[in-house]
Each structure stands twice: as C-alpha cells, then as structure tokens.
# Entry
Amino acid sequence: MFLGEYQHSLDAKGRIILPSKFRGLLADGCVLTRGLDKCLAVYPPQEWESVSARLRESSQSNRQVRDFLRIWYASAVEEEPDKQGRITVPEHLREYAGLEREVTVTGRGEFAEIWSRTAWAQRLSEGLPNYADLSESNPDLPF
# Structure
C-alpha cells in the first residue's frame, strides 16, 4: 500500500528517485498517467490492469467517457525503475502537472501521486482546514 508524503527532486533528465518505501511495490514497473487534480498518478502494473478493467466497463456511448478514456490512455507511459530507483517522467506529463525541480510524492493507497511541491502545498492548505468536513459531507467515504 502506498502511504506517506516524500519530498524529492527531478533531475535535468526529468528523472525522479522513487521513495524507498515505494520501490518494492513498483519493482515490476509502473504506469504513469494524468491524475485528476493536476498531478500524476503512478500505478503498479496489477493496479493499472484492475483500474483499466473497470474503465473498460464504462459506457462507450457516453462522449465524456470516451474523451476521458482517450486522454487517460494517450497520456499513459510504462516505466521501469533503474538500479537507483529512478523513473523518467516524460515531458508531456511534467507539463501537465507543472513539475519543475521540487516535487512531492504522496501515497494514495493503491497508487502514488507526483505533485509539484507548490501545488501539493496549496492543495493541502485548501483541504486541511476542511478535513473533517470532507469526510462528513461525502457519503462515498466509509467514516
């Protein structure tokens, strides 16, 4: 399970060292794609297959679903960590998420996210004051 928040940097080649606690989960590779909130989603292969299977069950007659799937899959890249635990973040994904040198890698349970450090700090500051309210006002959350 992907847990925690880690501060990392992109190097000049667009590579990021994965948090050591995530490396075992991503040892067989990973799939990077656009996250839903201007971040990147990093999936281990098994979770990518699970999410893809659920997405394939979506209604293909809905134009919004088709457009989402086009962007989701067109943005996706497969990566395999090198011996130092680094993956390369392609330029199109760095641009989408506004990634520059300083990034934050966060756990999201079944997958990880890569954020611009500035965007993560802003997102956290917006959500933290309402943390309890978020859980109380959302029936999809189990508590």
